[in-house]
Design goal:
The protein has 122 residues and is an alpha+beta fold. The protein has two domains: 64 residues, Butyryl-Coa Dehydrogenase, subunit A, domain 1; 58 residues, no CATH class. The chain is built from four helices and five strands. The strands form two sheets. The chain has a three-stranded mixed β-sheet, with no helix packed on it. The chain has a two-stranded antiparallel sheet with strand order 2-3. Helix 3 packs antiparallel against helix 4. The longest helix has 12 residues. It is globular.
């Protein structure tokens, strides 16, 4: 609710999804398609205040779009347990090493959420 959502339950979301699914553009027009919906949830749950101001609020207002980078060329599909890409925090900045093969909704997006391993022991 703090970012303008209705805080609907799963049943409500399923019913809304059924109606929106009657048009090929339904989910897209209302900004609840993949990957924007999932990326908004990730930012809401784990984003910093700055990230929420810069990316989450414009995303939920429909002003920008996002993309999701997970699939890698040497792994099968989108299995997160097989990721080779790593991210390391150095001097307050994240350094990402790796390669992504497919990036969902890259064209027209304002930012990407890239999935990478931050702890090789997990």
């Amino acid at each position: 609710k703090d970012t303008g959502g209705s805080y609907s339950g799963l049943l409500d979301l399923a019913l809304i999804g059924e109606v929106l699914g009657q048009s090929p553009l339904g989910h897209y027009i209302f900004g609840c398609q993949a990957p924007d919906a999932g990326n908004a949830e990730l930012l809401h749950l784990f984003g910093t205040v700055r990230q929420k101001e810069q990316w989450l609020l414009p995303l939920v207002k429909g002003e920008i779009r996002s993309c999701f980078a997970m699939t890698e060329p040497h792994t099968a599909g989108s299995n997160p347990t097989l990721l080779d890409s790593t991210a390391e925090l150095k001097n307050g900045q994240w350094h990402i090493n790796g390669r992504k093969w497919f990036t969902t909704s890259a064209e027209g997006s304002s930012f990407a959420i890239a999935i990478a391993v931050t702890d090789e022991n997990t």
